[in-house]
Structures are given as structure tokens and as C-alpha cells.
From TrEMBL:
Protein name (record): Cytochrome P450
Domain of life the protein comes from: Eukaryota
Record family assignment: Belongs to the cytochrome P450 family.
Record keywords, A-Z: Heme, Iron, Membrane, Metal-binding, Monooxygenase, Oxidoreductase, Transmembrane, Transmembrane helix
Essential cofactor(s): heme
Ranges in a coiled coil: none
Lineage, highest ranks first: Eukaryota, Fungi, Dikarya, Ascomycota, Pezizomycotina
This protein's record includes keyword Lyase: no
GO terms of molecular function: heme binding; iron ion binding; monooxygenase activity; oxidoreductase activity, acting on paired donors, with incorporation or reduction of molecular oxygen
Transmembrane segments: 12-32
Family annotation (InterPro entries): Cyt_P450, Cyt_P450_CS, Cyt_P450_E_grp-I, Cyt_P450_sf, Cytochrome_P450_monoxygenase
Amino acid sequence: MALLKLQMLPVSQVLLGGFLALICYLSVLSIYRIFLHPLAKYPGPIQYKLSEWPLLWQAYKGNRHIRHVRDHGKYGSIVRIAPNALSFNTASALNAIYGPRSANVKKGEWYKTFDVAAGSYSSFTETDKDIHAAKRRVLSPAFSVESQKLNEPVIIDMIERFCDTIKPTTDDWDSTSWNITDVATHLGFDIMGGLVLGCDFCSVQEETNRHLADSVLPASKFLYWVSYLPMAVLIRPLLRTKLFEILGGKPVVDNNRLIDYASRQVQLRSQDRKHSEHGSIPDRFDYLSRIVGAQDKKTGWRPTQADLNTETLNLINAGADPYSGSLAALIFYLVHNIGCLQKATVEVRTAFASSNEIYSGSKLNSCVYLYACIEESLRRAAPVPSHMPRVVMSGGMEIDGHLLPEGTVVGVSAYSIHHSPTHFSDPWSFKPERWMESDVVTPEDISHARTAFNPFSLGTRGCIGKSVAYLQLKLTLAHVIYRYDLRVAPEDPKRGCGESSMEQGREREDEFQLWDSFGFGRDGPVVQFRKAQ
Ligand code: HEM
């Protein structure tokens, strides 16, 4: 009867009624979110309290990390950044949220979209703590000391070929200028191709596979904000469809090619393995060989084909891009801080008698200034600059004395805490010396800084590739500065720098600009090389 009456109403009245109902609903929701929500007492801009969309817009624009610094500067160490999310800016919160396995949080919804197009969740995106633990145990032999030792020659070979590619043709400064962002992206991808798949993409030297290397960051950028969409759950089934390729464009198409490539490699490796059981295939050391056919001893879990596809893709992406971004940032800070570059260069050229000697061991470990430059550059340009979102589980959790209810999303931005004057004096300056004991830097200063330093995150969800990433960065920088002098290309000295015409927070000319995308977008520096003088 009521339906009949509704059908008889003019369309305009039905629309007006619907509109008024929507206004009422939004008004009640807004009042609830501002005044009655369990997080109502936490400070933050009103638009953040009302909706998730400002956060999503920041993810789209790549400036969330910049907003975190600004918001914490204005509102203090806890900011409500979305109706249901809090950002913290203290070392105690960082360690409570990301440190112990027992912390009553798990990875948030965001992770469920990011790499599921490959068919499953990887060790990086798995949100269930127990399943994650099994995945991590299966991966761990690939990251053992023995595996790193066996794979180091692959890394060195790629780096040496990279150095040959950029080799100056005269004794003076070469006229060719190199955009380090581009070449580091290719080198990072090639190294991961070698480590994960045992193959040689040659993207530093040749065009053929560059579209794959160049797809990693744009795909991450696209999936970064898409994964924050409130209705991302509806999008997940569409990720491998033509529609999504049209919407996402080239990065999605190329990323799908990379997924297909990874899947084919997994298939081939599974066949190899069957053959090798009959003794016909030589031993391989790459990561894929270690996970194909592996089984978790504790739970009996075995990765399916879809698990292997996703893990392979994850290892390439998670390994390649943060290293490439870190290398670009490192070289940026060195060529813009000539004193630091000279010190690191003298140290390396004194430690080694020839570039053939540059491999892991006591000589490389003696290069403490080189290591300090890497630490300082990771501080200034942490590859995941914004939040790694965690969600509070049943029973709630206390952080910095605040009891938070189940479902609250919490996080600490590495970029924000890495620039906090509470932990780093003169935080906007590039000072490798802050990581080295001296008359002015005490061991306590260093450990105080370390409690807030988290480029690789912490605990059981921290980076499994941390040790190999440090090795890659040390080897690359040592090989490059042993062989060559570096300078900013005179025709393009400001590439990668901030400027006053950019948004607030990007005005520092001596800061390498990051566009947050779970990884970071970047450009430059443009550099010239000369044979070591
Ligand atoms: C400078 C280089 C690198 C940096 C700064 C870095 C940083 C990180 C961070 C911050 C996380 C935590 C992400 C989160 O909680 O959401 C992470 C996780 C991870 N990283 Fe790295 N990473 C680097 C290199 C690598 C390399 C070389 C590999 C592999 C070869 C790798 C593999 C992984 C994996 C598999 C995870 C997921 C770990 C888990 O949840 O169990 N990363 N990395």
C-alpha cells in the first residue's frame, strides 16, 4: 500500500525527499563524527574528522607526508587524520605499534587491494598474523646469510655493468648527463631480476625490458590511492579486467605484464623443480628457487601457484623501488653536499686498492662515513614516507597512554618522525656526522635518534630485505665513487630540489622532493661523471 502511494508521488517530490533524507543522514553522521565518535577528543582539521576523502586526495597528490609534518606541527603528537584514524609522532608510539608481535594491531584494509591483482596476498600484504608468520618463515631462507653471500656476485656484476654504462669517455667531465632517478630505477630492477628470478633484464643497457622496470613506481602510485578508496573492496575483483586497464592506463597495463611475466617464471621454475628431482637441473640460488616447492615446517603450509605469483611480484617490486629511490636520494644529497661527498670518496679510495676489492667484508665495514651517509639519506628520504596503516584488534590497545578501541587505524609517518626536532637536532640538514660518535655526538644521542629511525619499519612486519638493501646501497655507492668523481650537471642543477613556488613544505631548495606513493615518486638529480682524479 505504502509502495503504491510512493508510486503516485511526482518524481520531483521523491527526489526532494531523497535529497532531504541524505542531508539528514550526513548531518547526523557529521555530528556523530565530530562530537560523539570515540576519537572525538583527538585534535585535527575538521575536514579530516568528517571524512576519509582528504586523506585519499593527499594519497592521490603524493603529499601525505608533508601534511603529516604540518599537522603534527600544529596539533601536537597525536592527530586525527580521518574519522577513524590517528597519526602519532613519537618514538614510543612507533615502537608500540610496529615493534612487538604481541602489539594488538594488524595490517589495515589498505593492504588488501595493493597486490591482490596477482592472485593472492604476499608476505607484504597478508593481514592475518598467523598466515603472515608462515609466509615469512617460507621466505626466510632466501634472506639468510648464506643466500646473501651466494647472491652477492650477482649484485656486484650488475653494479659493475652499471658503472661501465655511465663511464665517461674523456678524462674530463663527461658531456653526457644522467638523470639518476631513471638509471637507478633500471639498476634496481635489474638487480631484483637477478636476485629473485636469476635472470638478466639488462634494462640499464637496453630498451627491451625498460617498460617493465618503469612500470613499478607508476603502478604503485596508482594502486596506492585506489587502495584507500572507501569502496576498494568492490574494486578488487576488477583489478585484472580490461576496464581497470583503461582506467589505470599504461602503469596498470605494464604491471599486468609484469604479473604475467612473474607467473610464467613461477611455472617454468616449478617444471624445473620437477626435473631437478630427477637430477637434471643445476642448483640455483635465486629467491624463487628457494620458495617454489617450499613448505612451512611449523604449520605445513605450502604456497599455491597464486601465492608464488604474488610473492614473486612483491619481491621484485618491494626490492627494486625502495632501493632505486634511496640511491637517487643518496646521490642527490651527496652532490648537493660536496663536503660529504669528498669525505666519503676519500674514505672509499683509501680503503680499497682497486674496485675488484669492493665486496662485503671488513674493508667495506670500515667505511663508516659511507654508512653514515646512507643512514642520513634514509632519514631524509624514507622510501615509505607516510603511514603503514595498522588497525587495532579486538580488545583495544593503549598507545602513549591512550586506550584506543578496536577498529581504530593507527600509524606513524617515517618522514614526519625523521624530521622531528625531539629526536634529530637541526632535522632539515643533511648531516651524516649525527650517526657517528664524536666530541659533539654521544652514544646516547645516537641511540636516542635510533629509537625514532625506521626506514625499514620494525618488528615482524619490518623489511625482510633490510640486510641485502644495505649491502646493495653500500656496494653501489662504493663502486661509483671509487671509479668516478660526481657533480651536479651544470645545465640542470635544480632537478629534484624544492622551491618556493611549490606547495608549503616543499620550499627547501636543498631537500630532495618525494611524492609519497608507498615508495616515492621522484626526479633527478641530474649528474655528470669524471674518471676518479
Ligand atoms: C632501501 C631499501 C628498502 C627499504 C627502505 C625497504 C622498506 C620496507 C618497509 C618500510 C617495509 C614495511 C612495509 C609495511 O609494513 O607496510 C618493508 C617490507 C618488506 N620489504 Fe623492504 N625495503 C627495502 C628493500 C627491500 C628489498 C631489497 C627487499 C627484497 C629483496 C624487500 C622486501 C620486503 C618484503 C618482502 C617486505 C614485507 C615484509 C613482511 O611484511 O613480512 N625490501 N620494506
